[in-house]
Amino acid sequence: MRRCLRILALAATCAPRDATEAAPQAGHTAGAGNGRIEAGIERLWPTHADRQIATTSVNAFMGGNLWRRRWLAWRVGLTMTYADGYIVQFDEHFRNVRFDTSAGGLGPSGLVRLQTPEWAGVTLALESSGGLLLYTRHFPAGGDIYNFMWRAGPSLEARVAPSWWVGAGLRWMHVSNGQGLHPGNPAYNARGASLWLARRR
User: Within a domain: residue 16?
Assistant: First the structure.
């Protein structure tokens, strides 16, 4: 008897009653599903000759779908970063001077991800993120103790188990303290790749 009840319950769950109910059922198992934790790493390289700073970041995020929309997800968490390299600035005599610079940073960050429905276990997405990081020293050289880190780029995520996903993406980054265009805000840009592992909560 119990086995029959289980079979009936499973059939009622799996069989869509109409087209309008079938879509939400498929969306519920989409790669970005509601209630996720993610951990990942990024490596980004400089894009300008006078800002030769390489950046490695580790991210830990949690989140779900935004406003219950399956195509729009949010994540919040922490970013830990380490950057190393040099910048070239004008001195008071308008001569190029090289300043070596390196620092570690930590701070809160969040992202919004625009994503497709999962198809054959794969989800495509575009995402944008921002964070406020406190650094171990004024960074880059001549800057401040804090910076805003902005990142964006396309991603691909694949389901590898019922509750596990792996993802990879390209990233473009801008780091700045938001104080305007002057020597006290030596902003820099970078681009690279991101990898992460996600699990349903």
Answer: no
Query: Residue 150 falls within a domain, yes or no?
Result: yes
DSSP code string of the chain: -HHHHHHHHHHHHHS-SSHHHHHHHHHHTSTT-SSEEEEEEEEEEE-BTTEEEEEEEEEEEEEEEGGG-TTEEEEEEEEEEEEEEEEEEE-TTS-EEEEEEEEEEEEEEEEEEEEPPPBTTEEEEEEEEEEEEEEEEEETTTTEEEEEEEEEEEEEEEEEETTEEEEEEEEEEEEE-SS-SSTT---EEEEEEEEEEEEE-
Q: Could you tell me which residues are beta bridge partners of residue 39?
A: 60, 197
Say how many domains are in the chain: 1
CATH classification at residue 156:
2.40.160.20
Enclosing domain of residue 137: 31-200
Let me know if residue 196 belongs to a domain: yes
Torsion of CA 67, 106, 132, 63, to 10 degrees: 0
Q: Give pLDDT tens digits for 155-190.
A: 999 999 999 999 999 999 999 999 987 778 999 999
pLDDT tens digit sequence for 53-98? 999 999 999 999 988 888 999 999 999 999 999 999 877 777 889 9
Average pLDDT, the chain: 86
For the question of whether the overall pTM of this predicted structure is more than 0.85, the answer is no
